[in-house]
Amino acid sequence: MEMIAFSKYHALGNDYLVLDPADCAELPSPRDIRLICHRHYGLGSDGILFGPLHGEEAADFGLRILNPDGSEAEKSGNGLRIFARYLHDMGRVGATPFRVSTPGGVVGCVVDPESGQITVEMGPVSFAADKIPVSGKLREVINETLTAAGHEFTFCAATIGNPHCVLPVKELSAELATTYGPHIERDARFPNRTNVQFMKVLDPRNIQIEIWERGAGYTLASGSSSSAAGAVARKLGLVEADLTVHMPGGRIGLRIADDYSVMMSGPATPVGPMRLHPEALSNPAVE
Questions:
Q1: What is the pLDDT of residues 74-120, one digit of tens each?
Q2: How far apart are CA 165 and CA 179, in angstroms?
Q3: In CATH, which superfamily holds the domain spanning 126-259?
Q4: Measuring CA to CA, which residue among 272, 231, 265 is closest to residue 77?
Q5: Phi, psi values for residue 36, rounded to 5°
Q6: Are 113 and 126 in contact (CB under 8 A)?
Q7: In CA terms, which of 183, 199, 213, 238 is 20 to 30 Å from 69?
Q8: If pLDDT is split at 50, 70 and 90, which confidence band does 284 have?
Q9: Can the peptide bond before residue 52 be classed as cis, meaning omega within 30 degrees of 0?
Q10: Nearest of 241, 231, 222 to residue 123 by alpha carbon
């Protein structure tokens, strides 16, 4: 039986397996994705990056982003940085900018081999209910309230190609994300579910977040979550255009334009090549 080849990377502890179509022509089934990403029965990861594919909308490359529960994400900032680093490591790109198409839109990327930083033009953030989406009337979803597990929160919703719910809080902890995140992710007002960020503003140039990621659970870091939370903080007038997002896995730098377009910079680190035996996919413990 032929082994399946992957390349594993992490971005501030948020780990992905890159599956190159040159090594596996077909997208894995949702069940196979769950097994491959399983921390005990598979290789273990926060998702799979399937690419490079043919780029759309004049993009150089295409990418599909698969969550560990078998669902698909529209966009991932950390995933895009990892994919950019993979392309650079494979000699597919150099130090010049290139474009990647995802279901959540086309982004520009550039790898700085000197600093190890990867910059991604994440695109504009929108707070419009119909674009995120959030149920109810057409509006910008700013400073509304929801109740999760008996606790009332103020929240803002946003999209940067994928949906986010940002909850400003005075005190922050991982327990906050793991306790309330699962309930908010599946709140009925979010028809496509949502990523969840609990956010504390440290000062006008620094925010801190804890993340519950749609389809993945508690996550050490997230580029799209950082972008959404930073844009919300700027929308609320709490931060400046240039800021740093602090997460359990590390820090991401943002520049947020007046139209809430986000430029994100951070590292991506190779872990190593991995190979999966096809017999692992026959495990009945994961369905």
A1: 999 999 999 999 999 999 999 999 999 999 999 999 999 888 899 99
A2: 15
A3: Diaminopimelate Epimerase; Chain A, domain 1 (3.10.310.10)
A4: 265
A5: -60, -40
A6: no
A7: 199
A8: confident
A9: yes
A10: 231
